[in-house]
Design goal:
single chain, alpha/beta, 5-stranded mixed beta barrel, two-stranded antiparallel ribbon
């Protein structure tokens, strides 16, 4: 530092620890960055709720998402024990912080959630009653192009026929459970595939598996003709983290070449015999049914 005194020039030196000063300045910058980039924000959109079932392990997981009007999808993280009580298709407002941890998904740590429009508002007639036209998309993986279950009549019979040996079809199950108010319809012409997805069977479970299946089948399917989507892939039970099936808790918004469609989605990841008990279970989630306490 230069200083003049009585016509003379003095040099005054200040000795600092460069590393300490750097750390102090860096901490200030990080604080500013966190306040700017990771302060609570408000997000609005439509809810998506998906249940993952691990029957062999006797447990399940529920994942919550918010999809904005521009199609951006955020995974919602809640404090343990503070899971919300909503289903897919609700209009919601979330106050929370975007995660600064690099993941494959956009994630929000939720501070507050408001239901702006319940999913059932104005739903007349009730979409869960009456005929339910089922679309089935059958897929496999780029490193396991399994087509061992290529008898689509077998799949159709287990879904739609009224009686099965030692069991009941999915259709009969929903007729009985609804006292005749709901039934499933479809046949082999409702089944499309096989489609090979551009992912590995050995990767972690992909929450956007249904999106890839829709994209693969889009040229062959007119989605507005159907009410519910069932995706099936015959895989080894140890693949994909032992998940045997998933179901959205009500309808979600999906993008197709036919426009935006609101449709519930179930996924069956199981053995070659098309396990009908798992099919019934996951389809039940798409009607808005969560678990009754078993898990």
């Amino acid at each position: 530092v230069n200083s003049y005194r009585k016509g003379k020039l003095y040099l005054v030196f200040e000795f600092v620890d460069i590393e300490e000063r750097f750390n102090e300045e860096n901490a200030k910058l990080n604080e500013i960055e966190n306040n700017v980039l990771f302060s609570p924000e408000i997000f609005e959109g439509t809810s998506e709720v998906m249940i993952y079932d691990y029957f062999d392990e006797g447990r399940s997981e529920t994942f919550y998402y918010l999809k904005t009007s521009d199609g951006t999808r955020y995974k919602l993280n809640f404090l343990q024990g503070n899971d919300p009580n909503f289903i897919s298709g609700e209009g919601i407002r979330v106050t929370g912080t975007l995660s600064n941890v690099a993941t494959d998904e956009n994630e929000i740590s939720v501070d507050n959630l408001e239901i702006l429009q319940p999913a059932t508002a104005g739903a007349e007639p009730n979409p869960n009653l009456g005929e339910q036209k089922i679309l089935i998309i059958v897929v496999n993986f780029q490193d396991d192009q399994n087509i061992s279950l290529n008898n689509f009549s077998f799949i159709s019979n287990r879904l739609f026929n009224e009686t099965l040996t030692n069991d009941i079809s999915a259709n009969e199950y929903f007729i009985e459970s609804s006292y005749g108010k709901t039934w499933l319809s479809g046949n082999t012409s409702s089944i499309f595939g096989y489609y090979t997805l551009p992912v590995s069977i050995n990767s972690d479970f992909n929450p956007e598996l249904y999106i890839q299946a829709i994209e693969a089948a889009d040229d062959d399917v007119f989605f507005p003709n159907y009410d519910r989507l069932l995706i099936y892939t015959p895989i080894h039970p140890d693949s994909y983290g032992s998940i045997v099936g998933t179901g959205t808790l009500g309808p979600i918004s999906i993008e197709t070449d036919d426009g935006q469609i609101n449709m519930p989605v179930a996924e069956i990841l199981g053995p070659n015999y098309f396990p009908i008990s798992t099919v019934r279970h996951e389809l039940a989630h798409t009607f808005g049914a969560s678990h009754g306490g078993y898990y």
